Amino acid sequence: MTAATHSTLFPQVPETADAVLDGLDPEQREVALALTGPVCVLAGAGTGKTRAITHRIAYGVRSGRLQPASVLAVTFTNRAAGEMRGRLRQLGAGGVQARTFHSAALRQLQFFWPKAVGGELPRLLERKIQLVADAAARCRIRLDRNELRDVTGEIEWAKVTQTVPADYPAVVAKAHRDAPRDPAEISQIYAMYEQLKRDRSVIDFEDVLLLTVGILQDRHDIADQIRSQYQHFVVDEYQDVSPLQQRLLDLWLGDRDNLCVVGDASQTIYSFTGATPDHLLNFRTRHPGATVVKLVRDYRSTPQVVHLANGLLSQARGRAADHRLELVSQRDPGPDPGYTEYADEPTEAEGTARRIRDLIAAGVPAGEIAVLYRINAQSEVYEQALADAGVPYQLRGAERFFERQEVREAGVALRGAARAGGNDSLLDDAEDLPAQVRAVLSTKGWNPQPPAGSGAVRDRWESLAALVRLAEDFSRAKSGATLSDLVAELDERAAAQHAPTVQGVTLASLHSAKGLEWDAVFLVGLTEGMMPITYAKTDEQIEEERRLLYVGVTRARLHLSLSWALSRSPGGRASRRPSRFLKGLRPGSGSLGTVASGTSGGFERAAAAGRRKPRGPVLCRVCGTTLTEAGAMKLMRCEDCPSDMDEGLYERLRDWRAEQARELGQPAYCVFTDKTLMAIAERVPGSGGELSSISGVGARKLDRFGADVLAICAGEDRGAGLDED
Predict the structure, then answer these.
(1) Model confidence pLDDT, tens digit, residues 133-155
(2) With DSSP H G I counted as helix, E B as strand and the rest as coil, what are the percentages for the chain, rounded to 5?
(3) 262 vs 175 pLDDT, higher one
(4) Which of 88, 280, 640, 710 sits at a 20 to 30 Å CA gap from 264?
(5) DSSP codes, 81-147
(6) Please, what sign has the CA dihedral across residues 261, 262, 268, 272?
(7) What is the pTM (predicted TM-score) of this model?
């Protein structure tokens, strides 16, 4: 399981090497015992690949067959590398290096640069987008913000595929790649970008790999020194290796073959970054004597979810599809995947938020629910809908937990309190470890009740609350643990980037959800043009979109909902069609096979189900323009049209909301969002009907808060009005 799952937080370290193998299934055990020669693990989604390879490393170390310092395990994200380090530490193999390709290469580059080149390593460029902008300006090419981001991505792709500026146009044409600008212009910007880097003595992340490759190729003595240290290599997510990363791996290996790779061609979704499954698919050709193990027992998802995932891939074409793995669920049956068709996007978001609220009421933790979409621009309408429904959420891709300022400050405070021990008066009334942590963190802004509102204040509270929960779990797992013990645990977790879980429904793109899992997953916006995305033209690009949806489906453990909207905005023409990938899978779309074991799954048209009547187009009440953005539709006006809001009324509503939030123990936005209060203050409703016509004031909130809001709008004391009228 991943860091986002129900994993045991503080397991006991196995007492012996053989104990490391306990609990592995036959295939995972085969992986763990294959400690020599080339090994290829073909691991489907949810089959415990990380468990298999970390137990393999730990068994090798604990049995004395592998020296911890001689093993290098590489993966693709800091989160995955941190999780691997955390698991190895829990298995008693904490001395093993588990890093990303870039982190491992940078470490070697920093160490060997003075010997290989002389002087200090050039400064590493944290973000290249400003330098790309400068390069475009030097070339007299104007790029808007989106084009600048896309051109930056093209330069990254060119570098990881080892394409020099002069060759870029020809390589793009050969690869049938859609360039965001004229390839000749991108080539020109790319060349100027490289020149500016040299002029300013900086390198970028791709240079880290390129320069390390160059040094290892030119300096055999340095290559031999690295090879003498690292004798065994493990590569996770091998389907995502780029040509440049494969070249670096070959140089690390030399003429040896102690290499274990793990991957799934059906989860190749990063070709735009240069990733290719060819290295995984060709592994047995390059290493004819390789041990090959297939992991197909799915421990994550129910048979219903697995059946849908298998059905989705059964329609796939191409080389990766020829090597697909047929998953076999190891879980008890669960609910069928649900399919819902909505009239428009805001209605889809509101319907999704209602279902999420129902799941939470039924006992599913908010942190075990995710809404996944194709592009980040889709998040806004779901943020608004969840806020209106009073559901806390978090956006995937935020700053790494242990690098947050409030977490660093909390660490300093806890370390100081641990050193002071019984001499810290702050801890006088604290009976146990959790109470001590709560006392210390109270000086940093934590309190038992979450703050009103969202944004940075709420994020800070959530970070501190995660530390409090961690202390509670640690105390239960380690009887008699002290504050010093907890500080040591936090230090080790920070070093491994093994972060505690922050609660809240996750909003994430399908790409950023890779490697994660939740009890309940909502796949939204599944229409032609979005899934597959409109710019996916070639057969290869279409198949990658199918694999992306497969990744989304396989994130769900128990509850899975798939939905789409027939138009973008209320009253729009219902011209959209459900994704072609759902044909034969959703009820009424053809006969590919039964959607779930013995049933047809749940398909409903939201309007037909009576949940919401079709709405006409929403027009700006100031200029008459048709509104499409969620925030603008809530205000019934364009964001930049003049507001006639009663400022005094707005402030009174905010004060009332803060009081309600305190009484309910909820964030302020769970009562009403700022946009809803602005809409109320602009329209000043005089009746329940007028109030309920404002987006964000549903029947539940009208019943709960309507009397107070109407009383405030009428200038009366809050609490009077609706019932008396």
Answers:
(1) 999 999 999 887 768 888 898 89
(2) 50, 10, 40
(3) 262
(4) 88
(5) HHHHHHHHHHTT-TTSEEEEHHHHHHHHHHHHHHHHT-SPPPEE-S--HHHHHHHHHHTT----HHH
(6) negative
(7) 0.69
